[in-house]
TrEMBL record:
Organism name: Streptococcus sanguinis SK330
Co-factor binding comment: The Mn(2+) ion enhances activity.
UniProt xrefs under InterPro entries: Amidohydrolase, Bact_exopeptidase_dim_dom, Peptidase_M20, Peptidase_M20_dimer, YxeP-like
Enzyme nomenclature, EC number: 3.5.1.32
Protein name: Hippurate hydrolase
Named cofactor requirement(s): Mn(2+)
Upper classification of the organism: Bacteria, Bacillati, Bacillota, Bacilli, Lactobacillales
Annotated ranges, domain Peptidase M20 dimerisation: 238-334
Gene name, Swiss-Prot/TrEMBL: hipO
UniProt-annotated binding residues for Mn(2+): 155, 157, 191, 215, 409
Amino acid sequence: MVSGSWSVIFLMNPLSSPSKAIYHNTKIRGLIIDYLLSIFVSASSFVLYWMVDRCIRVKESAMKKFYDKLIQTRHYLHQHPELSGQEFETTAFLKGYLEDLDIRILESGLKTGLVAEVGSGKPVIALRADIDALPILEQTGLPYASQNAGVMHACGHDFHQTSLLGAAELLKAMEGDLRGTVRLIFQPAEETSQGASQVLATGLLDDVSAIIGFHNMPQLKAGQLALKAGAMMAGVEKFKVEVEGVSSHAARPDLGVDTVLTLTSMIQNLQALVARTVSPFEAAVLSVTHIESGATWNVLPQSGFFEGTIRSFNPTLQQRLKEDFIRIVENTAENFGAQVRISWDHTPPVTYNDPELAELLYEHSQNLAEVLPANPSSAGEDFAFYQEKLPGVFAFIGSNGAENAPDLHHDSMVIDDEAFKVSVPYYVESALFLLQHYKQKA
């Protein structure tokens, strides 16, 4: 059975199809009725008209209850956010929710987060949602605002994980007809870029053919989905440069090695790295965001540091910028007679959508949402670590769209719950489509 047939099956079972055309496009009722009347031109057709209309109303009522349940679930999770690596209560909640649906939870060894699955056999398609929150004091004023002071789901991971719970419920309802296995990844620690690597280390993705993920996007309206082949989010390098000079009195700089001058010269020299060595047709950014040195006004300090980030959408360019960065910093330190140490944090590479799968899902998603070509984001996403190991597709799903809507990581960021009507079908339809795709390729 191909995934396209779920729209038909939905007429019999409201939880068996995530097709938007059926469960939240009200024009479908008239289209179905007109079609049936064109075939059955008799008195009995009016009985059929009434039966179909009533059937669809019942299904719409069932789907409303389904979405109301998801909204209540998200609001609960929004009230109880937990930081990266500390998602213990969140994990317990997810485990209980899935167990109530009789969904298998796999032994993973993860401290927080979990992996579950629906279906059996090959192929295996993975759906991933992140579950951690941010150290932000919420200022939304929502009735379901965070009850954990100083911690907030300001990146919408409450929405992501609830969307996957909804998809899990729908997939479980059609489990007997699945043509393979759908693995459900509730990933911890995305904000620290550590969670994807932890999940990969479990080995539970070793047999996966492809992986699907998304991030909510406040700049897009609920009902919109953005997708493209290739780079979706930037590769991220986080750097820290520590400089050791020779301290002296401010009146006798000739007796020391000026750490402050060395630091500021490095920063000045680095500004030419993107401005004068990167093609204007490529996107890249180098930002110094933090600098410290000294403790008083009349002493040249012994040491200091600065830190920041390099981002681009081209892995080759990213590596070249890193190498040039090191060369500029080391040469500047040598020119001033200072010592320098450069350190780099483990951060995500480019989030790069598999070209073939992205094009297929771009077309397949047309019946789920208003599908737009994605504008890449210069933010980073550890979903990229999965894509280094297996084909993957990452989308942006509209979650607000209001003029001047607060962005991700803002203390007033608010998600429109109508977005569930795209996020849940995106997960389910992508899984069904890819199961069929890989079954045919086998």
